[in-house]
Amino acid sequence: MAASEKPHDDAREIQRLNILSGARSVFARKGWSATMADIAEAANVSQGLAYRYFPSKEAIYAELLDRASHLEAFENVRTMGGSAMDKLRYLINELLDINDTHIELFRLSVLTLHDDALPAALRAELEEQTEAFRSLLQSLIAEGQQTGVIAPGNPQQLLVALLAFLNGLCIMGIQGSENAKRHFPDADIVLRILQPPANS
Amino acid sequence: MAASEKPHDDAREIQRLNILSGARSVFARKGWSATMADIAEAANVSQGLAYRYFPSKEAIYAELLDRASHLEAFENVRTMGGSAMDKLRYLINELLDINDTHIELFRLSVLTLHDDALPAALRAELEEQTEAFRSLLQSLIAEGQQTGVIAPGNPQQLLVALLAFLNGLCIMGIQGSENAKRHFPDADIVLRILQPPANS
């Protein structure tokens, strides 16, 4: 083993994940203006220690983005069976689980996407991921309209409505009142906007 | 007329409204961090001129809040006839008109509500208005569930869903892409989340 390589170390890996988790939480709340001091505080470590794991907040953010692009849920939805509505239900339930981390990653993306201060390389990566997510939802809406499980009508309008709803729910799940979290809606309420009208 | 009173002057009133309008737009985009320089730029006047109309951004914000509390739409919805669903449709159509100012006032409220830097007196007024809006929606949901035009189920969950959806749409209407604005959803899509399930 070369001298520059560090031996694998469980405690080190756990601390690394702890700092990433703190960072995910503060980026999801403060956006790009979150500082290394905020991240260290959220991870309950000193700033000095945080810097021993990551050279900068840019490096932490880049790793969070990379992890977001490899989420199991995205892979699962591409390979699972079922109707377009089943796939959307699965995806939205994963995304809106307020005890899981997807909701923070989603909020982090939306919050930093329009911040001019975000470095260009990170923005390019974020835009690519945002576009992939949009395009996944778009193809599921198209598939669902074709098979009749999703309401007819302008698919772009349905997509904008769905994205807006998810965006608003992520904000509510992270920054909403305790009451909002206690009565947090599930995927079924979200999917009502896509349901075909009753034949009456 | 006392020397301290200014004679009524149409041009002066128009300039005043112009500055308020610029301020509404920048507060809706930047939140409380918007500065007098931003406001002056949005209103296309010099900072010096803006200060001759308003002593501070706090004064401008206070007047915007005051105007928001007297919106005709709120008065109309309290006096109009029709079902709870009709009233919600009217209210949401007013709110989501991306060519009107309500959407900016709504976004301004949501964006500044959780900013610790907002002065306490303004926060108290904002919280009162936010609570009045919540409580109006809540009473319409209760009325609609009682008369059967709104889906049964946890009314708090429907309220959280509706608020989240409106919040997400206001963001999209103000900061979304041109494509999102071109395909902006209307109140009917929003109200699908409240519709009773089809009897199938």
Automatic annotation (TrEMBL), chains A, B:
What UniProt keywords are attached to this protein's entry?
DNA-binding, Transcription, Transcription regulation
* An annotated Gene Ontology molecular function: DNA-binding transcription factor activity
- Signal peptide segment: none
PROSITE patterns to which the protein is assigned, alphabetical: HTH_TETR_2
In terms of InterPro entries, this protein maps to: Homeodomain-like_sf (IPR009057), HTH-type_TetR-like_transc_reg (IPR050109), HTH_TetR (IPR001647), KstR2_TetR_C (IPR041490), Tet_transcr_reg_TetR-rel_C_sf (IPR036271)
Report the Gene3D superfamilies cross-referenced here. Answer: Homeodomain-like, Tetracycline Repressor, domain 2
Its protein name is TetR/AcrR family transcriptional regulator
Q: Which Pfam families match?
A: TetR_C_24 (PF17932), TetR_N (PF00440)
SUPFAM superfamilies membership: Homeodomain-like, Tetracyclin repressor-like, C-terminal domain
The record, for PANTHER family, names: HTH-TYPE TRANSCRIPTIONAL REGULATOR BETI (PTHR30055:SF234), HTH-TYPE TRANSCRIPTIONAL REGULATOR RUTR (PTHR30055)
